[in-house]
Specification:
About 40% of the residues lie in helices and about 20% in strands. It is an alpha/beta fold and about 400 residues long. The protein has two domains: about 30-155 and about 290-360, Rossmann fold, CATH 3.40.50.2300; about 155-285 and about 375-390, Response regulator (Rossmann fold, 3-Layer(aba) Sandwich), CATH 3.40.50.2300. A hairpin with a 2-residue loop joins strand 13 (about 350-355) and strand 14. Helix 2 packs across helix 11 (about 315-335). The longest helix is centred in the N-terminal third of the chain and has 22 residues, at about 1-25. The chain is globular and about 65 Å long. InterPro entries: BCAA_transport (IPR051010), Leu-bd (IPR028081), Peripla_BP_I (IPR028082).
């Protein structure tokens, strides 16, 4: 009886230890083929309305993981394992995807393309004490009131002002704005453009909204055409953009059509055809202007990687940002000397890196300190660098 009792107690103790280990939020004991690993979550849309842009960020993160597969923590080398989830460009699905990453016990999260899904998941990451580093989620609400969310891109107030400055500098006096109802990125960026353009003395002659998955924009565009604007600012997804562009030109609208960073995607050119020539957009990076040695190395290496993945070899800015977000995560992990989320969050506040998109450090809100945007157009079916611009 005594032997049985000892065996029972031993089994109970083992079970208790196993439960405690399973419930622990720390992944420090995780191993893969004998190697110590740390998990980094990739929270991106690879399907849905923003699936194309999300995949571009994922490719940048995967390439970063390929070139920087390990990190030193307390003198020991850990293999970095990416745990990818698809938030499907949907706010409800974003919550499910975020909860999956929490259950996977990731130490850091990267993403997401699309401010709306980033905002939807933000509190889940904060409650779990897992820091998130956005690549291109530009809406101010992503980091506001959430000290576990950071980002490596500039913000929409800056981007909206930059595009208003560009419009004003190129003689635009009247502008029309088209935004997507219920989309945080689209409505926010449209609003910031409006504020900046009117401050510069411009007039907003028309403001139009459209529904998600809308395909016919002719009624909206007919209203805009009657107002004869010099520029149409239409921040929208890569799904809606070619439809707006093509239908505007079919109606005989000759105004400049402009938007923000989401339009730097080759599928827009492919789907809009010749109508895409002359569009203008702001973005975060230009491969013809490497900011430093890291950028030069990334440009040559990532082009080879894209070729291997059977992708277009033109480097999207969001891929560069995805790469930079990964580098920031590694620097914070190494600085913290820990896989603990709170320790990594604290380290992120002081992180400085020379990334592909330039020098990156964070302000008190977790936003990257950036003051320059690249303006591009489309000419002969290709994106072409026009100028760099800052906020006046």
């Amino acid at each position: 009886m005594k032997l049985k009792k000892v065996f029972a107690l031993t089994m109970a103790a083992c079970l208790s230890a196993s439960v405690i280990a399973g419930c622990s939020s720390s992944p420090q004991s995780a191993k893969d083929n004998g190697e110590k690993i740390i998990k980094i979550g990739v929270f991106e849309p690879t399907t849905g309305e923003n699936g194309g842009g999300g995949m571009q960020e994922v490719l940048g993160m995967r390439y970063a993981n390929q070139t920087h597969p390990t990190v030193k923590i307390g003198g020991e080398e850990y293999k970095v394992k990416l745990v990818e989830v698809d938030n499907k460009s949907d706010k409800t699905e974003a919550v499910n995807a975020a909860q999956k990453l929490v259950s996977e016990k990731v130490s850091v999260v990267l993403g997401s393309y699309g401010s709306g899904v980033s905002i939807a998941a933000g509190q889940i990451f904060a409650d779990a004490k897992i820091p998130a580093i956005g690549a291109s989620c530009t809406n101010p609400q992503v980091t506001q009131g959430n000290d576990f969310y950071f980002r490596v891109c500039f913000l929409d107030p800056f981007q909206g002002t930059v595009m208003a400055n560009y419009a004003n500098d190129n003689g635009a006096k009247k502008a029309a704005i088209i935004t997507q109802l219920g989309d945080d990125y689209s409505s926010g960026l449209g609003s910031f453009f409006k504020t900046a353009f009117t401050k510069l003395g411009g007039t907003i002659v028309s403001e139009e909204q459209f529904q998600t998955n809308q395909t016919d924009f002719k009624a909206i565009l007919t209203n805009i055409k009657a107002q004869n604007p010099d520029i149409i600012f239409a921040p929208s997804s890569i799904t809606s953009a070619p439809l707006i562009i093509k239908q505007a030109r079919e109606l005989g609208i000759t105004a400049t059509i402009a938007a923000g960073d989401t339009w730097e995607n080759s599928t827009i050119i492919e789907n809009a055809g010749d109508s895409a020539n002359g569009i203008v957009l702001s973005t975060f990076f230009d491969e013809a202007e490497p900011a430093n040695d890291e950028a030069a190395s990334f440009i040559s290496g990532f082009k080879t990687y894209l070729k291997e993945q059977k992708q277009d070899e033109i480097i999207p800015a969001v891929s560069a940002l995805g790469y930079d977000a990964y580098l920031c995560a590694l620097k914070a992990i190494e600085t913290a000397g820990s896989t603990d989320g709170t320790a990594i969050r604290d380290a992120l506040k002081g992180v400085t890196i020379d990334g592909v998109t330039g020098n990156i450090s964070f302000d008190e809100n977790g936003d990257a300190k950036k003051d320059m945007a690249f303006i591009k157009t489309v000419e002969d079916g290709k994106f072409k660098f026009l100028t760099t611009t800052t906020v006046k």
